Amino acid sequence: MSSTESEPLSTRHSIVFNTLVAFVVIIGVSLISMLASLYLADALEGDAEAINQAGSLRMQAYRLAFTAEYGSQALLSERIETLQQTLRSASLRSALHRHDSTQLPALHAAVSQHWDQGMRPLLDAQPARLEEYRREAPAFVNELDTFVRTLQEASEGKLSVIRALQAGTLFVIVVIAFVLIYGLHNNLATPLRSLTRMARDIGKGDFSGQVQIPGDTELSLLARTLNQMSQELAGLYADMEQKVDDKTAALTRSNATLQLLFDSARMLYSKPDDPSQMMGAQLSKVQQILGTGPISLCLNRSSEAGSHTAMTSHDLQPPEYCQLPQCDACPVNQTGRLPTGETLLTFELRSGPDELGSLRVASRTGEPLQPWQTLPLTTLADLFAASLSLARLGQKQARLALMEERAVIARELHDSLAQALAAQKLQLARLKRLMQKQSDQAQLDDSVQQIEQGLSAAYRQLRELLTTFRIKVNEPGLKPALYATIQEFSAHSGLQVESDYQLDHCPLTPNEEVHCLQIVREALSNVVKHAEAAHCWLRLTQDTLGTIHVTIEDDGIGIRLEEQRAGHYGLIILRERANSLNGTINIGRRPAGGTLVYLRFPPAYRHFSPQTGTGHA
């Protein structure tokens, strides 16, 4: 529990309670003043009428003297009765009752006695004693004046009390209001302005302000609570800013590390044949971004053969401790420490069972690498290892491809040109024997003719081999090469070739593309040289089983049966290429006239292993 929660608020120090008390006092004083005023006003009710009636008694007293002298007896009696009723009227009796604490009752009794005993008997006498009445009238009027004046003074005294009560009430209310306003100004308005200003500063992120409100009121409690909250928020914001700075630094390091790995992968991909130089060029960036000590790279072909390349992030030269090729004396293989006291941390470059080298980082004793440093170094070592492994695999594949290419050339030379030359060697030996035996000229001419034909066939075979070895498929896919071949033959021979290529969704291997293209070139060459055709149709399709169908038709004179039986060398080459594709080729007459060459073979991507059910080339 906080200190502010443990501080109870006293009722007598509450601004709200004090304000309510002040308003209750104001309302109470006002209510008492109103009730007192109402009571006094009620006490004054009828005084004016009583004063008027008392004042009229004077006029009636003088009028009685005139009526007695000049009026009738009946009128005199009537006016005597009127004065008698006025003197004993209800308003006068009520006024006497309201002012019973004054001299009014005695004055009224004296006036009544004077009337009953001194004035009325003079008028009731027969005849009326007017002279005596006139002499007595001034005294009676003086008594009436005294009575009226006393009644008026009593009434005015009560009015003075009402005015004094109202003035006192107003004074009390003004004093209470002034005290209330002064208290609210000091205890409410001023502290509220301070609290509002502090709240505005807190909203802007400024927690340095403090508000001091003396006393034990609600606002002082609120000020202490707000001060404590401001201090706590200042601490939280400072801690949060530190955390944000730490996170920002971590993200910056992560971004720099990812960029480093991306740049490294892109550079190694750009030159996959010799990645070692690219790897060495990255060492300085790795050291700069990760903030480590000197980084060195040691490469070897196998763990038994030792290292062959070593470089550092400083100058791409072997480190000072390196004594290639004496790897046994390397500190890594000894104590793992440099003469300067630094520790060498090793990240192996491993691809499967092969150890391709190591990435080494020098660090000071007592300053180990952080996880955010070791992780990218491990990833970079794996990336270097993968790049070296791919480069070695590419070199191995290049050597295998070169050996395979040379084997193909040797096989082609052995199966064609070598056999043809061997046959001519035998023909030449036969010619020598005939010449030694002095055979007739016909036998000699026949042997020479066979030698010439054999040499022509060997020369043709040589040209076919040269054409085969020099053929290029510059753009990916068979289609561009076929169109280029069609344009070549059309331009040089005038032959109109119409093509229908439907293998856009059929991926062929480079070997299949070359053999298929060479078969089409050989067929078109035969059309141009032997068919005497004006049109030729080329069509490549694939059936639902995946088999490729290639047809070459022309409208020429057609192939002769003796040419097929004679085993024309060009046709032999076509059959050999078809066999290389695991396919068959048929050459015959076209039903509509001309020659039809039909090739069918299964593409490699549709071959499936019966054991595993997986495709293989």
Automatic annotation (TrEMBL):
Residue intervals passing through the bilayer: 20-41, 164-184
CDD domains xref list: HAMP (cd06225), HATPase_UhpB-NarQ-NarX-like (cd16917), NarX_NarQ_sensor (cd19408)
UniProt keywords, alphabetically: ATP-binding, Cell inner membrane, Cell membrane, Coiled coil, Kinase, Membrane, Nucleotide-binding, Phosphoprotein, Transferase, Transmembrane, Transmembrane helix, Two-component regulatory system
EC number: 2.7.13.3
Entry keyword annotation includes Methyltransferase: no
Coiled-coil blocks: 414-441
Pfam families per UniProt: HAMP, HATPase_c, HisKA_3, PilJ
Subcellular location: Cell inner membrane
Broadest EC class assigned to this enzyme: transferase
Membrane topology: Multi-pass membrane protein
Keyword Acetylation (UniProt): no
Positions of the Histidine kinase domain: 408-605
GO MF term set: kinase activity
Chemical reaction(s) catalysed: ATP + protein L-histidine = ADP + protein N-phospho-L-histidine
Domain HAMP as annotated: residue spans: 186-238
Entry protein name: Sensor protein
Record organism: Stutzerimonas chloritidismutans (Pseudomonas chloritidismutans)
